[in-house]
Amino acid sequence: MRIETCYFCSSPVYPSKGITFVRNDAKAFRFCKSKCHKNFKMKRNPRKLAWTKSFRRAHGKEMTVDSTLTFAQRRNIPVRYNRDLVATTLKAMSRVTEIRAKRERAFYKARMRGNKARQREDDRKLVLENQHLLPPSERYAKEDVEEMVDVDVQKVKEKVEKRRQELAESELESEEEEVLPKLKSKSKLKMKRGGGVEAMDVDT
To answer: Where in this chain does the record put each TRASH domain (predicted)?
Structure first.
């Protein structure tokens, strides 16, 4: 069973799946789905579309130089059947996929290293630029904005805790109001004989 590779996005094309396009010069192109076929007919460059393998390799998002990648290359050399050779090949295939998965994981971790620090810096910048959107208790003073490169973690934690307590208290008050509705005070006015009104007893 031969697993072909999609000409456009380089994903696997299994037997009886996908689309085959044969050009006038008898060159055959295999596509995994109609999306790849349409993009090929529209003469789009796969290196410029972010969802293709060629784009990911060109932009340093996937391994390009690794010894395990040579095992995936197509070989058309006929080899005489040998039971021992087949057994060792099957073992090697499982081992190669395991090694490749480990190396891809290590490559991904190396590529993502430093992202957290960069994201934190972007978040700090966003907070400094949008001080007017924060509650008054959590805004920084104008003179302290320039010195916000080294943030005091303890002060920030205290502010956050204080704000949480305020929110919790406000929620408790609102719950009490819902449970115990306000009693309506009744006040009646009595008409005087000579004109005007006289206040009567008030129920609270």
So the answer is: 6-44
Domain 1-62, CATH number (from 3.20.20.70, 2.60.120.460, 2.30.170.20, 3.30.479.10) = 2.30.170.20
In whole angstroms, give the CA distance from residue 164 to residue 137: 11
Where do the structural domains in the chain lie, given as residue ranges?
1-62, 64-136
> 39-62: buried (b, 16+ CB within 10 Å) or exposed (e) per residue?
bbeeeeebeeeeebbbbbeeeeeb
Contact present, 46 and 52 (Cβ < 8 Å): yes
**pLDDT digits over 95-127, tens only?**
999 999 999 999 999 999 989 889 999 999 998
